[in-house]
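Backbone geometry:
***
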Amino acid sequence: MQETFRRSSNEENSPLLRFVDSEKITKYLKHAREIPKSILSSIVSVTNPDRSTAYFNDLLISNDWEEKEAVKTHFGLLKTMFC
């Protein structure tokens, strides 16, 4: 499966990421966009086994996404495509 994001050298040895990159995973993940979601979900479930995602939700919401240049650029591209 094609890698959709950049990984650090520490992540290369991760059993989870090796499985995600293996051909076995295509049975479960049919689209490339599902790969980052599966990794995030795995991390949340390991670090937060009681299935409480409030902490991670607070982290995501507390970030000023509107101020990020990459976000502005990508939404600008989408706006020109669809408007």
